[in-house]
Amino acid sequence: MNYQDDIPLARRIKSIKTITTKSFLRVGLLFLGLGISVTFLANKSFLSQRKSLDDSINSIETRQNKSLLGHLPYKEASKKDLILFSPGIYVHKDIYEKFKEMQFMAAQRGVSLQLLSGYRSINLQRDIFYENKSIRNQTAVERSRDSAPPGYSEHSTGYAIDVGDGNYPDTHFEVEFEQTPAYKWMKRFASKYHFVLSFPPNNKQGVTYEPWHWRFEGTVNALREFDAANKIIKFK
Ligand SMILES: [Zn+2]
């Protein structure tokens, strides 16, 4: 027996109507839900495709956004990539021969290129940054114009070097280095050996001019390290 038999006809019709209306609403909602899901999924897959396409750009942008007081974050070189150049000074193995060659060629003209520093661990950079800050009685912001905060130094890659003139030691790490034959030689010939001045006067990173600080861009890996820095130079 149909359970609705107990209910008067008028009410039965009303209840059927209600059911039908509800069903339509349900089906409608179901389709709407499906529509939203399909749109969402399509969008998501489009976004993920775009994401993979833009991955390199994103990583560069992320690094630029993570810059600290003008300095970009750099990872520490792995120990196996480092080689001892002179007592206490390690450099990336890819720049060892290049610098030796440069030194030799400069010496042919009576110019003494001296390697003052190369690879620095993040710990050493930490000591330099905080020690100098207290010695010079500077705030972190003031100090950051001259020295990179730990984790933000090109030196930690092993591809950055500080160069001095062996005949003019008083100019080591001073702007006056730019008056020396060593600097003049570097300015003219260093690019042949893929060394570039990282912080020229009024550089867009806002770091103090450092005529002694050069970075190597002569391998794909080295170039990749400095991609973000080069993008700032190009687009800022
Ligand atoms: Zn330096």
Task: List the main descriptive attributes of the protein structure presented here.
236 residues; alpha+beta; Muramoyl-pentapeptide Carboxypeptidase, domain 2; 2 domains; 4-stranded antiparallel β-sheet; two-stranded antiparallel sheet; 6 strands; 50% helix; binds zinc ion; carboxypeptidase activity; hydrolase; protease; carboxypeptidase
Task: Characterise the protein shown here.
Keywords: Carboxypeptidase, Hydrolase, Membrane, Protease, Transmembrane, Transmembrane helix. Residues 89-218 form the D-alanyl-D-alanine carboxypeptidase-like core domain. GO terms for molecular function: carboxypeptidase activity. It holds the Pfam family VanY. InterPro entries: DD-CPase-like, VanY-like_core_dom, VanY/YodJ_core_dom, Zn_M74/Hedgehog-like. With 236 residues, this protein is of the alpha+beta class. The chain has 2 domains: 3-55; 79-235, 2-Layer Sandwich (Muramoyl-pentapeptide Carboxypeptidase, domain 2), CATH 3.30.1380. 50% of the residues lie in helices and 11% in strands. It has 7 helices and 6 strands, in the order αββαβααβαββαα. The protein has helices at residues 9-65, 93-107, 122-135, 140-146, 181-189, 220-225, 227-235, and strands spanning 82-86, 89-92, 113-117, 160-165, 195-197, 213-216. A 4-stranded antiparallel beta sheet has the order 3-4-6-5. Strands 1-2 form a two-stranded antiparallel sheet. Helix 3 (122-135) packs across helix 4. The longest helix is centred in the first third of the chain and has 57 residues, at 9-65. The structure holds zinc ion.
